[in-house]
Design brief:
Blueprint: E1 5-9, H1 13-25, E2 29-33, H2 36-43, E3 50-53, H3 62-70, E4 80-84, H4 89-98, E5 102-105, H5 110-123
Parallel strand pairs: 1-2, 1-3, 3-4, 4-5
Length: 124
């Protein structure tokens, strides 16, 4: 089975490095971007199996990034997760109405995150 490739986007460098390292330890290939425009530039060169992003970022927040990514035909069916410190039921419901696959709040148990990712990729 090929190694699944993930894209993780977060403007917090410490979080970016910690999650990347943890996901690599779980057997995933992980690319990272520090903001939405950097993620979109990376997506011109690579096709991840799943995208995870923070919500609170500048200059493009997670909702905006999600909408831009989904405009690209080859990413229309790519699973997309929010990993955020925003523990708000309204934001979670809004994410669901947009079609986001998972709304996960920080702090997150890495094994649980890995399990959620694997389940989504298996059902893809």
């Amino acid at each position: 089975m090929k190694e699944s490739h993930l894209l993780f986007v977060d403007d917090d460098t410490d979080m970016l490095e910690a999650v990347q390292s943890a996901l690599k330890n779980l057997g995933f290939a992980v690319s990272t971007a520090s903001d939405g425009p950097a993620a979109l530039a990376l997506l011109e060169k690579t096709t991840p199996d799943l995208i995870i992003t923070d919500l609170r970022m500048q200059p493009m927040n997670g909702f905006e990034l999600f909408q831009e990514v989904k405009k690209i035909p080859r990413f229309a069916k790519t699973p997309f997760f929010f990993l955020t410190a925003i523990n708000d039921p309204l934001a979670a419901r809004y994410s669901e109405t947009l079609g986001v696959d998972a709304y996960i709040t920080k702090p997150v148990d890495v094994d649980e995150l890995g399990s959620i990712i694997k389940k989504k990729l298996e059902s893809k």
